[in-house]
Amino acid sequence: MEQQEQVEWDDVNKLLQHHGFKPLYFADPVENKNLSDLVLLDKKSAGEIRTTLRIMLTDSERRQALIQELIKSNNQLKEEVQEHMSQAAHQSQRASELEGLLDQVKTRVQDLEDRYLGKAVQQHSQTQQIQQEKQDAQRRNQALEQKLSKQREEAAQLQRKLYFTIKEEERRLARHSQTYQHICKKVSQQNSAADQQVLDVIDFYETKMTQLLDELRSVKGESDQTRSKTSSNVTPAFKTILKAYQEHQKESKAQIEELKQELDTRPTLKEVKLYKHKLRRLEGLNKHNNARLPEDGNISDQAKEAIMCSHYHHLLNEINSILTNPNAPLRLHRQKPSSVTLDSAEFQTLLPTLESWSQQLHLLKVNTTCLQPFVSLTTGKKNIVSHSSFSVQS
């Protein structure tokens, strides 16, 4: 065997051994006598076998490398599949969480819708109630205006009657003074029949005045003790007549002062006009705000509620400005003016003033009722005084 051929077979054997095959052994046919165990190859066949073996081994290596690549790519695909499966599981879990969140959002939206409808119904009922209260307040305002006009007329009548009463009282005092001076001139003389008649008239007048004063006190509810009536016997003592006259004069002055105080506590015409002007302004603002509310149909309920709150806050500020005015009459429960915006709790201070107004209106009505019998009694006094002066002059 040539050396070149031996090298080639060595290369083939190395390849066979590299791939786990047994190498090929070459034997000398001369030395080996058992020919059945030998395979004879010519050079051409041997070369083809070597070439075939090389090709097979090379193809085997290529296929093995391809199988390794396939195994590697299969493992990568498995990893990608596992990753995709984990992502799919994560996405499925995320989808379930989103579905649960969606259910919660739907429940929350349903609760908000129910709450919104409830608030809308409540605000509608409150609006109707406020409108009803407004109508009631307007009716009460009209009734109070009518009562105020009646009371102004009654006050004017009482002022006229008081004026005439004071004038008549002054004339009566003047006549009484003249009678007193006439009696003083005759005090040194002996009591005549004419003097005795004058004293009788004065005693009768004092008795009637005492009775009328007792009746007036009983009408006003005074609990004075029962006075003893003046004896009908005429006393010639001049001190007794003078003392009775002074007591009557004091009582008349006290009654006049009481009437003047009652007139001072009542509002003047200028104050009434000022209050009517304020009331008209408040009614105009109220009508203007009520006219604006139906036109703003597209405004949200919160905006409407803010407008209503601003409107009533303005009304309360107007009332508070009237109460804090230093020129406010009727001895109002005035509060110190504050530059800070009033809260809903501070508006509670207006309640005592409103209650005081109601009590004063009631007392004015009661005093008017009580003064009617006093006017009739005053008319009776005028008649008695006229009769007494006529008797004295005669």
Automatic annotation (TrEMBL):
UniProt KW keywords: Coiled coil, Cytoplasm, Cytoskeleton, TPR repeat
Listed InterPro entries: CEP70
Keyword check for Coiled coil: yes
One Gene Ontology MF term: gamma-tubulin binding
Record localization: Cytoplasm, Cytoskeleton, Microtubule organizing center, Centrosome
Single GO cellular component term: centrosome
GO biological process: cilium assembly; regulation of microtubule cytoskeleton organization
Coiled coil, from the record: 60-161, 202-262
Keyword Coiled coil (UniProt): yes
Subunit structure: Directly interacts with tubulin-gamma; this interaction determines centrosomal localization.
Function: Plays a role in the organization of both preexisting and nascent microtubules in interphase cells. During mitosis, required for the organization and orientation of the mitotic spindle.
Official protein name in the record: Centrosomal protein of 70 kDa
